[in-house]
Write a structure and sequence with these properties.
globular, 162 residues, three-stranded antiparallel β-sheet, single chain
């Protein structure tokens, strides 16, 4: 039994599955932080922040996306997506477009340079962490299958942004 102190001592028995899930999360987080550091360094070499790279990755060639939809996928405020779009547009990677007669609604479309850099970013972000690549092929398949089942429990909107 673990005792957690908040305002007064409360005894809470942690279910074994929760304890295992917490350990898995801790391990997942360790691997993720190493991967984020590696990717962050590579993105810096490309002149991108993580948010800019993620935005590029979410935009699909020949399919402009409303800025509000992109903000939802990035889980950020609409004002933040404006700054991200400003910086990507200044580099010639995206262009803003109005939707029909409603000039208030803006979409972002990849330019040819944006399509090219998006492919590099997608490749970089798809590269497995060294800790996972070092596992046997059987372990990699098992891990993949477990993660697929876990992703099924995510909200649909979270699955779309991955």
């Amino acid at each position: 039994m673990k005792v957690f102190k908040y305002h007064s001592p409360v005894a809470v028995k942690t279910a074994p599955s929760t304890s295992v899930a917490r350990e898995a999360q801790r391990l997942f987080f360790q691997i993720g932080m190493v991967q984020r550091t590696r990717i962050g360094a590579a993105l810096t070499e490309l002149g991108l922040t993580f948010a800019q790279a993620h935005a590029l990755r979410l935009l699909e060639p020949d399919r402009p996306s409303p800025m509000s939809s992109l903000a939802e996928l990035l889980v950020c405020d609409a004002s933040n997506i404006t700054g991200i779009a400003d910086r990507l547009e200044a580099r010639g990677l995206v262009e803003r477009r109005s939707v029909g007669a409603d000039r208030r609604v803006k979409t972002l479309a990849l330019t040819p340079a944006g399509v090219e850099l998006r492919a590099r970013v997608a490749d970089l972000m798809s590269e497995p962490p060294a800790a996972i690549a070092a596992l046997s092929a059987d372990d990699q398949r098992t891990l993949r299958d477990i993660l697929r089942r876990a992703v099924e429990h995510l909200p649909v909107s979270a699955r779309e942004g991955a």
